[in-house]
Write a structure and sequence with these properties.
By secondary structure, the protein is mainly beta. It has one domain. About 5% of the residues lie in helices and about 35% in strands. The chain has a 15-stranded parallel β-sheet that branches. It is globular, with a radius of gyration of 19 Å.
């Protein structure tokens, strides 16, 4: 049964910022014990601006790498980088307003490492599981914790830490996205230099497209009121061309937008070269909302994300990345069962957006 992390505890123990995504591989073993009774949210995943659920298929002891290029900037009240079964590399002359946390849930060797390029600073802490490293230590203004005792990588309840709880709740949310009944079909295939607007109704909008393609210099505008929220999903790929934009109008905010490439279980060949549920962007792209790639995200140079990025298997960004972290607040009706992806009747679910 899921336990939500106490945010007042976090405020006392962990400097602002925390981590975000992980599949059901290291301690997550059930989603909703009573589907429909509680709306599904991204939960503790909301603390992370950039999160990699990183285990390489069938080989958790060969660590992945979350890699960010030079001159990056992560801002916002919880602008933290999180990585599971992965190392973290941030290029030179970058800044992170929160923390950086990486862990393998003590499934070592090896332990995770965090490496910062020259002139890069992290306002908060650098945290890994026991035996890891966070270097150079002087660049972490909140200090380092590499002995496995940080709340990011362990806790007295079940030992998986904030990273584990974040990916538990995120994976449940992901399953509930797949299990939403009767999503509205749309086409998002915008030619270079062209524009398209998706107009939302009041409340929760769940839209599905075969693929999400926004050509170079093209714009996808999401028009909705302050009480509208959007899940835009595709079982295919998300491709955003150079200098393309995803913009918001009408009062809807990035906290209410989730754009995801996610394939129903057993329909995808896995995390390899022919997987379809990928996010790929060119240079100079602007995204408003949280973006998710089930089988990886590769962001080009000089991308701006007002929201967050949550990615499985692969997370890379070119130089000049700017993430202004805005936590996702959407709540979905709970349709996913204990194994995350077996869909059920909602019983008593009500989808809503926090703060309505």
């Amino acid at each position: 049964m899921h336990k939500r992390t106490n945010t007042s505890f976090l405020a006392k123990v962990i400097p602002l910022g925390v981590g975000l995504f992980w599949a059901a591989t290291a301690g997550a073993n059930q989603c909703n014990t009573a589907p429909g009774s509680t709306p599904s949210t991204i939960g503790d995943g909301s603390y992370f601006a950039f999160l990699l659920d990183g285990p390489i298929p069938n080989d958790i002891h060969n660590l992945n790498t979350l890699q960010i290029g030079t001159s990056a900037s992560l801002t916002g009240p919880a602008a933290t980088i999180g990585a599971v079964y992965s190392n973290v590399v941030v290029g030179a002359l970058s800044s992170v307003a929160g923390d950086i946390a990486a862990g393998t849930f003590n499934a070592s060797p090896p332990a995770s490492t965090i490496f910062l390029g020259g002139g890069t600073t992290v306002k908060g802490v650098g945290a890994t599981n026991a035996g890891g490293s966070a270097t150079p230590a002087k660049s972490f203004k909140g200090g380092t914790s590499t002995n496995g005792t940080s709340p990011y990588v362990t806790d007295p309840t079940d030992g998986i830490g904030l990273l584990g709880h974040a990916v538990n709740t995120e994976e449940c949310f992901d399953g509930n996205v797949i299990c939403q009944p009767n999503p509205t079909p749309v086409t998002v295939n915008i030619a270079p230099g062209k524009k398209q607007t998706l107009t939302l109704k009041y409340g929760l909008n769940v839209l599905t497209a075969p693929n999400i393609t926004v050509g170079s210099l093209a714009t996808l505008t999401i028009n909705g009121g302050s009480h509208s929220s959007l899940v835009l999903e595709t079982p295919g790929a998300i491709n955003l061309g150079p200098s393309s934009k995803i913009l918001l109008t009408g009062g809807i905010t990035a906290a209410s937008v989730f754009i995801t490439a996610v394939t129903p279980p057993f329909n995808d060949p896995g995390a390899n070269g022919i997987s379809t549920s990928l996010v790929t962007t060119g240079a100079g792209v602007t995204i408003n909302g949280t973006i998710h790639g089930e089988y990886g995200c590769v962001f080009g140079a000089n991308n701006t994300i007002n929201g967050a990025a949550v990615c499985d298997w692969r997370l890379q960004a070119g130089s000049g990345l700017h993430v202004n972290h805005i936590a996702l607040t959407i709540a979905l009706p709970s349709y996913a069962g204990p194994d995350y992806f077996t869909c059920t009747d909602p019983q008593a679910a009500v989808g809503e957006e926090f703060g309505m």
